[in-house]
Amino acid sequence: MSSSGSTYGDIHRYEPARESTAAAVAIVLLTIVEVVFVGLFTFGLVNGWGYSPLGNMYLGGILAIIFVDLAFVLMVYRKEFLPDVMIVKKRRRKWEDLYIREEDVDGTAFAEGDPLESVKRAVYPYYKR
């Protein structure tokens, strides 16, 4: 579904989320795995596995698995349960706000006024700011 509006803030494209049951089951299973690994990490931390070099590596691996699993949960949730929305935004050039005042966006004639002043302004954009 798309609209023909081109003013700032209009929704250009809106695609509803799929909300599949398989994705919901996958999120539930990944969350259960997440809770198991968090419990294992907490158990190892309380029992002092971090004092030995091998136990410290083991705890680091479990922590990495926890964050990778969380990333997969968030990825599946974003893909399956959030709608795809594109909003019209005002397009500006990168340098527009930095170098040019709003009234000078269209430029000025080179021969207008003092030519030396125009050259200084062209060479050094922050002149008389």
TrEMBL record:
Record keywords: Membrane, Transmembrane, Transmembrane helix
Pfam families, per database record: DUF7318 (PF24002)
TM segment ranges: 21-46, 58-77
InterPro entries in alphabetical order: DUF7318 (IPR055742)
Recorded superkingdom: Archaea
Name this polypeptide is given: Uncharacterized protein
Source organism per UniProt: Halosimplex rubrum
